[in-house]
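Box 4.2: Ligand-aware structure prediction
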Amino acid sequence: MQIENGKSKNLKHWKSDLFNKESLKKTIGEQIMETLSWCNCNSYREAEFVVIGLSDESHSHSLRKGTSKAPNEIRRVSRTRDIFIENGIESPAYTNAGKPTSKIFDLGNVSRENIEFVYTKIFNDGKIPITLGGDHSLTTPVIKALGKKYGPISLVYFDAHPDFLSSTRDFYGSVIFDCLPYIDPKSSVMVGIRSPEQEEIENIKKYGITVFSPSDIQMHGIRETLDAIVAKLGRNIYVSFDMDGIDPAFAPGVSVPVPMGLNPVTASIILKHVVKNGIIGMDMMEVCPELDIQDMTCHLASRLIGETIASVKLQKKTLPFGLSAIQNV
Ligand SMILES: [Mn+2]
């Protein structure tokens, strides 16, 4: 196995005594200029969440290219928009869910062929991976690695498209079908779906995944939607977030935009609600920085990740009046 920047290192030499920022990056992760703004520790060993960039789009069929640049761009935008400098001192901008109090470490970027090794390692070390994609097909090897360890996964899939084709495999349109051996469809949900193909509708019915379209959510309201989603979910929750689930008015920088999508507040409320009792991992996929407008999609991706991480351990927090209403959604 080779690392992405061309240095030929065998990952089996990734020993636990190398788990500090510099040596770990030399050993496994591609050197990156900046870490995600939410990252607050320099050591893999003490981290509870591990941010990993997957800067690959080789299994996308989209005419709009550029998702491989998203991990580094989301990091860069996150640091310019979510950290303020006051008198030379960095001041992080908190989320609606408060200050992320967990230990978060940015590992850098990892190549597609090293996904299984890296995610299995992260699992074995009891840490939670937060992935920056990349095209959505990269979710498949991540879910495979985690599913082999955890058993069937309860998947929460934010997307405009079901990604449930079975006639073509191993690409960004067949993620759900490719992951079927590792997920429990009956306890999995799709949120934001509004552009399915006939074959995908048949697969959704056949395997019994519950779908919440943006119209469903608007018609039934957010509280009823939250109850319906939670009623479906099981253990081992994994959140996969395709930024095209959000309306292109808010997230234009994606590879396959579809109008009439989720608004960011709705998406963040659902996110916060489904992750609050714990997740086994999360990914943020399909951002296309070159097609973005004033970095708004990259910034939103960063904020949704921040909301998620800050929400996972909300139970112990006391928040100021006003924010607590958000906490208790
Ligand atoms: Mn997708």
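In the box above, the bound molecule is manganese (II) ion. The longest helix spans residues 296-312.
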